[in-house]
Structures are given as structure tokens and as C-alpha cells.
Amino acid sequence: MTDAAPRPTLPATETPTPVPSSPTPVPSPVPTFDIFTPCEDQACATAGEHFWLERPIPAGYVNYADRSYPYGSTLDGQREPHHGVEFANSAGTPVIAAAPGTVIVAGNDATTAYGPTKNFYGNLVVVQLDQTYNGRPVLNLYAHLQTVIATLGQTVKPGDLLGTVGQTGVAIGPHLHFEVRVGQNDYLSTRNPELWLKPLFYNAKSWGAIAGRVTDTQGRRVEGYTVVIRPVAVDYAEPRTKYVSTYVRETLNGDDALQENFAIGDLPLGTYSVSVNTTKLYQQTITVTEGHVAWVTFMVNPPAPATISPTETP
User: Fold this and answer.
1) Residues 141 and 56 in one domain
2) pLDDT (tens digit, 9 = 90+) per residue, 42-81?
3) Domain extent for 115
4) For the chain, first and last CA: distance in Å?
5) Among residues 109, 126, 106, 130, which one has the least CA distance to residue 189?
């Protein structure tokens, strides 16, 4: 995606060959659903907010998350469950640190799998934040880079240059893949970055987010259902309907405090219709306020699983 804003020129001295790293492999943890007490109301959701992170792409470029493949989505089963968000930009666009921390990976994944397999994220940088969450480390992963500029062990602050946008590894078109990991640097330790990135500003006000949980009548989270978020009356000139998917439980996590199974950030302030359609349409109206997460829950009656008649061959 090309943006009309001018792009800074990176000096040739700032584009060294990526430096491979050799971290000690750690056992894969299990997803965190049901480990923590889930939020049940707005007060709990507000208390659990943690908008710590600046944008990993500078202003003047596309610094908002792409909506076509959000966290938790599988594109209706066409892709692997998405463990981060994407910032679609032209190759060479600067990638910058989102928070203070230390670079613990600067190189590529040719020998160490930081995703489901080796050679999945290509050139990447991982920063362990100075700030912990519930006593556990928080890490940001920046992947599919064209060049890696950060160095192993480097201390960074928000805005420091880490590399440039590319499409190395398994990537369709140039973009930054950005993850938040909690606990350890592991593919199964991700959280939805849209609940960590500080909302964008509009008319000198911070936008907000919506998060929630969709369960069946037994209280079990349902997977892969589309949640439709339709603006009713919002402070924005071009309101648009948004679509997100409920997370796949096997490899994705709800936030420690919220235990949501869907979320979306960067929403203009105002009222929204939030709905899920299973055996019938479930709908609620909620209000997004400045710099906060609006919380919503649905208990739905999912369609019965498909059955195979005795005359059919599985």
C-alpha cells in the first residue's frame, strides 16, 4: 500500500546485514483461556486496560491495523490463525520501537522457529519491554522485515528505528506483522495488540476500543464466529462497519484481565450496534468513550454441528 506522505531516506550506514541470534528454546505454553478469572462487566474491563504501546509505524505512513486479517482470524479457514496485526506499507517503510525495552532477537528465523515453523517470519526483531504485566515479561515481535537495523542487546525507546517493512518469510505483499507476547517469547503466548496499542487521535480526542466474549449456553467460548460492529452515531466523517472473528482457542489467547475472544481498536467515539448471527441475530448497543475499552458479552445458541447421513461417505 502506497501512502502519499513523503518517506524519510534511510542512510546507507543504517542498513547492516541482519544479525542472527541464538536464544535458548523454551517449552511451548498452553493458551491462557480459563486460567484467569474473566471479566464480566464494564468496570472490570476498564480496570484491566493497558494501552502502553505507541505505533510501530511512524505518522505519515499507514500506522493503523489492517482490517482484512485481524488477530484471531483465519480468513474463513483459508489461513493459519493470525497471532498479530498487520500494518500494510510499501517496502522500505521505517519500523520503529513501540515501547522502551531491550532487543533480544535481531536477525531471522532460519534456525530458530519464532512462529509455527522456521522461515515463517523471515527477518525479525523482538523487543522485551522494560515494563512487566502481572509480574511477567511483555515482548513485541516485528516480522517480515526487509532490513534489520536493531542489534542484539540494544536498548531502545519509542520511535527508535528497528528496521524496514518487507515481505520476507511467509508474507503476501509488503507489511509489518506485529505481535504482543506475554510471559515468554513463544508463538502460543500472544495477545491481541489492539488492546495494547494506544488508540489514534481524532479532533484532539483519543479513540477507543471494543472487546467482548461470545459463549454458548454452557458458557463455552465459541470459535470463528463473525462479530459485526456497525456505527450508529459516531464522531467521524466516514464511519464504516467493522468485522472481527472470535478467536480460535487452540493457539490464541484472551487478555489476562479480560479473557475476551474478540476485540477491535481505533474506533471513533460514539454508539455502535454489535451483533452476532447464529441460529438467530443477537444484538446490543454500546458506547465507545475516549481512551477506553467498551465491553460486551453474548450468550448464543450456536447451530448444531454438521452430521453425516448413513448413506454418505466421510
Assistant:
1) yes
2) 999 999 999 999 999 999 999 999 999 999 988 877 888 9
3) 12-23+51-195
4) 43
5) 126
